[in-house]
Predict the structure of Response regulator.
Amino acid sequence: MINYSYLIVDDSPSDATILQRQLAQITTLKQVTTCGSIEEALAFLLTQPCHLLFLDIKLSGQSGIEWLRESPNRPPVIITTNYPEYALDCYDLDVVDFLVKPYTTDRLARSIHRALARPTAERTIQSQSIFLYVNRKLQRFNFNDITHLEAIGAYTKIHTVDGTYSTSESISMVEARLPQSQFLRIQKSFLINLDKLTMFEHRAVWIGSVKLSIGQQYRETFSQLLRGRSKKGNHSEIEG
């Protein structure tokens, strides 16, 4: 059974409590987190998986609709609001459902069922990607789009198939949130996506035309992991 994680974003503590109580009556519930602002929600999504997001429209001067417009890659969203006039705007933003307060637990349950009935790949996008701060905004990076990461002092440069970005998080902080089966440290300053290797040898790897040396203390771990992947047919071209 999937350990579902739900996030409530509502600046009304009483409304959030009512929703929590309703969710507690639904058997698919596993974990519920409540945030009172968009900033809190972004901080949560930066580090935690989320299968379903319950979002109020007006949040102490902030606009849930504007957030949706700026965040195309996000968990499925159910709107919970006192403002029915925003329904059309929200459906244009591909929300799962639009609930006008107060709503019944049965109505809420139908919305959740609709959300979780979406294709698995759509519901689990969070587990295939990572949120990182870029230019003071959270940006989602799909694991498969990242080629390698480079430590630049306390910052990290993210090299992707589409370009290069910089985040204020250290490379160790980013590494802790990446899948170990796919990403490997090859020296103090470099972390590579093993699926992007095009060639490697004992002391160096190539990602396209980029050559990176393997630190001595990392060579044995690298060799062991590559041998394991080679047995599964996932190895890249081997040079001498």
Notes: Confidence is low (pLDDT under 50) at residues 120-126, 234-240.
